[in-house]
Design brief:
This protein has twelve helices and 17 strands. A seven-stranded mixed sheet has the order 2-10-9-8-7-3-6, with helices on both faces. A four-stranded antiparallel sheet has the order 13-14-17-16. Bound molecules: pyridoxal-5'-phosphate. Pyridoxal-5'-phosphate binds next to α4 and α7.
Amino acid sequence: MFQINENYLKLPGSYLFSTVGRKSREFIEANPDKKVISLGIGDVTQPLAPAVIEALHKAVDEMANADTFHGYAPDLGYEFLRKAIIDNDYKPRGVDLALDEIFISDGAKSDSGNIGDIFGPDNVIAVCDPVYPVYVDTNAMAGRTGDYVTEEEKWSKVIYMPCTAENHFVPAIPEQTPDMIYICCPNNPTGTTLTRDELQTWVDYANEHKSVIIYDAAYEAYISEEDVPHSIYECEGADTCAIEMRSFSKNAGFTGTRLGFTVIPKKLVCNGTSLNSLWARRHGTKFNGAPYIIQKAGEAVYSEAGKQQTKEQIAYYMRNAKMIREGLQNAGFEVFGGVNAPYIWMKTPDQMSSWDFFDVMLEKYNIVGTPGSGFGPSGEGYFRLTAFGSLENTQEAIGRITKG
Ligand SMILES: *Cc1c(COP(=O)(O)O)cnc(C)c1O
């Protein structure tokens, strides 16, 4: 008789967004006259930039002609795209990468979930708390997290690094030494960042303890402050301890189009084995490439017009972020994030629980946000709002809150 991967049975139900959805629907049905505004989901709303659309149309037409048709893409992705990434994202920041240190993929979610394939089953992982759920759940599927302890809302073998207002959302070095350390910066859900020095501390720690850092930089394009690194490779020695993931989803609106990449420097080795060659093997065996037309669209993000247009999209979302942040502050709330990321992380008033505050926001202001406790136990007492809505809706939502 066949057996299933029983690690899947250990996963607790993912109630966060389904409960948010159900509660919102029930409220709307009971109150058809109310206009409910969602500042809850982490998905973009602006259309793809004109330069991207133009490149897509052109690439589609190429596919109609035998002379310009493209079949399977090269394993690592087309060189035109990897070169554009190196020339635009890394060289200007003083980071030297070779073309075969970049792996094009269909997004940072799959890469951050799949990367575990090349690591041993007994590695101990460390994650920030609250956290993007993909890191923990995919390690649970791989059997690396021990058992789920319901009362604590924690996995027995995972090292949780609380990130709260008390430590300014900077994870402290844990007592137990982790093998794999997940860092997302700028952070989803808290919208906060690490400075270059703070990140350097982690890079030094990882090198010293022979740990690997899985660095998720999906929100890199939203960084506005000088001392926040755009890439972990801006830190000295990161090329011997860090894997970096990037995405075209949040900087260029590719959430439905799908494109991302992972960087694995060849200097990153474990007992003489290069992780770059392991991932090349994995990528070539289990992934058959992001579509040509999408890689051409990705290349257009780096054209002069593409850079200008995507910069304007980000500015649009960040204008919303500023409005939310300042509106909430003026209304007397304690807020974080929203400066280098499209997320605003607020403290619930009067020690209210995240879910109680969800109900207040929905019933009193008709606004949907995300309860912080859904991202981990240290998210309790916080609430996430996103800047991905339209300007008009964001204005109206904040207007309701400031009017009280
Ligand atoms: C949105 C997001 C991603 C992007 O994933 P894609 O698969 O590239 O769309 C990755 N990491 C975090 C933390 C995110 O919020």
